[in-house]
Amino acid sequence: MGMKQAIKSLDAFPRAEEHLLQKTQSGALVSIVGLVIMATLFFHELTYYLTTYTVHQMSVDLKRGETLPIHINMTFPSLPCDVLSVDAIDMSGKHEVDLDTNIWKLRLNSHGQIIGTEYLSDLVEKGHASHKHDDEKEHHNDDDDKKLHALGFDQEAENMIKKVKQALANGEGCRVYGVLDVQRVAGNFHISVHGLNIYVAQMIFGGATHVNVSHMIHDLSFGPKYPGLHNPLDGTVRILHDTSGTFKYYIKIVPTEYRYISKEVLPTNQFSVSEYFSPMNEFDRTWPAVYFLYDLSPITVTIKEERRSFLHFITRLCAVLGGTFALTGMLDRWMFRLLEGLTKPSGRSVYP
User: Fold this and answer.
1) Which of 44, 51, 50 minimizes the C-alpha distance to 320?
2) pLDDT tens figures, 240-255
3) With helix as H, strand as E and coil as C, how does 165-182 read?
4) CA distance readout (Å), 332 to 319, 321, 322, 342
5) 0.90 cut: is pTM over it?
6) Which of 217, 216, 191 is closest to 287 using CA atoms?
7) Contact 257, 302 (CB under 8 A)
8) Quick check: 332 and 348 in contact, CB under 8 A?
């Protein structure tokens, strides 16, 4: 019997008899508010527990012998597709001109609408609509043909020059998109008219200062995207008016691994960039272009998704619910005493 009494003395939650309790409207109001607050906090803590967070770790990059994928999606509103080429060169000495690996070009009219598609390695477009010319234009074309023959151009070059001039007159642009697979070393790739014979380019544009390399970068990335990734060049717009020049984007690539909560690993890259524009003058011997000069960081960033522990969730839940319960209890007592003071002699009945 003494043991039972000793155990009962440890009870931290003694029960009062029912006839000693009095329910009030203020108590009911505080209880409802407290329940709403506790339910809101419970769902907030549950959501916080179920969502993942990321942990960043850094280590030395040990990858060797892999390729670097470069995803390109750009629009050149002032240059026809026939004159654009994608060239790449890296520190290993590998130089590729007019790359045709997984690169596509879309012909655009002056309103930005697609009017033709071609693979970069196939510059012969099919199904072109024929254009009608008046007598004066035909006479002008005949004069051009004579000049081209005099300069020693073959028929193919002559046709291309006339075709590009017509495209420029119509305000054609070009959208270049696709994937470049390059060596995993520092290098650059650029989009320009460098694939043209210099004399052909001179006949088309009349000089480097007339080459407008205005461009819009819809997407430029070095691997697949992961949650939270922001590529700083996406959405970049550079439009030139009555001038020309070379754009250079200096890119620092950081190798990255994203590890999902499911243990799946996504190898990719993130990067930072700085930009430089060099205006063109009539004495320059180079031709305008858009350069992307990239270098790789020796450090790999590993981003891991993790979820908070269940014990952490229970601890936070007890803290917020217990704190809310204690606070509403204090509020109930204060309200009761305030109302009791204002409405004396009415109040809670306490029996001896």
Assistant:
1) 44
2) 988 899 999 999 999 9
3) HHHHHCCCEEEEEEEEEE
4) 20, 16, 15, 15
5) no
6) 191
7) yes
8) no
